[in-house]
Amino acid sequence: MRHDETFIPKAVRDMLDARRYPQQARYLVAAMEDVQAGFGYVPAEAASELARYFSLDEAKIAAWLRDASGAFRAQPLGRHVLRICQGPICRTRGGKAMMEEVRKVASGKSGLTVLASHCLGACDQAPIAKLDEERLSGHGDETISALVLTAISNINGEDGEP
């Protein structure tokens, strides 16, 4: 959904006013959660409005978007979401390498969001990934990587997506 340049800042101001957040930096995270709940992500225009409201540097908001353990997104989720487990067991069994490989392959895929997930609850099948609601697991990092890469390659062929 496209909005004109004044829609998002006004919507954020309205949300901040409705919630009556004190203009103190300690309320930033709660406000960002509300913005993300409303838009599905924290748009740049919303981050600018939050910086103004809380009298913070926009770089601080950008840092939160980048570094908040995946809690916040600066872009809307794609039509498909691939979560790759980065829990300790999955990381040691190839999850870290798989994440790096998949991010390279998926970077040009429209409609796909790749996210690190802390744990997908299947340590006995590590490493593991989940594409939308389908769990992808194998035995060894080559097998799971192949499954994930095959699933990604199938995404561009559906519903006329480029």
In short:
By secondary structure, this protein is α+β, with helices and mostly antiparallel strands. The protein has helices spanning about 5-20, 30-40, 45-55, 60-65, 90-105, 140-155, and strands at about 80-85, 110-115, 130, 135.
Task: Walk me through this protein's architecture.
- With 162 residues, the protein is α+β, with helices and mostly antiparallel strands.
- It folds into 2 domains: 7-67; 80-155, Glutaredoxin (3-Layer(aba) Sandwich), CATH 3.40.30.10.
- Helix content is 49%, strand content 12%.
- It is built from 6 helices and 4 strands.
- It has helices at residues 7-19, 28-39, 44-53, 58-67, 88-106, 141-155; strands at 80-85, 112-117, 128-131, 134-137.
- It has a 4-stranded mixed beta sheet with strand order 2-1-3-4, covered by helices on one side.
- The longest helix has 19 residues, at 88-106.
- The model has no long low-confidence stretch (mean pLDDT 82).
Rg, nearest Å = 18 Å
Task: Flag low-confidence runs.
Answer: none
The largest beta-sheet arranges its strands as 2-1-3-4
Q: Count the helices. How many?
A: 6
Number of strands: 4
What topology emerges from the helices and strands here?
Blueprint: H1 7-19, H2 28-39, H3 44-53, H4 58-67, E1 80-85, H5 88-106, E2 112-117, E3 128-131, E4 134-137, H6 141-155
Parallel strand pairs: 1-2
Antiparallel strand pairs: 1-3, 3-4
Helix pairs in contact: 1-3, 3-4, 5-6
Q: How would you describe this structure in keywords?
A:
Glutaredoxin, single chain, 4 strands, 162 residues
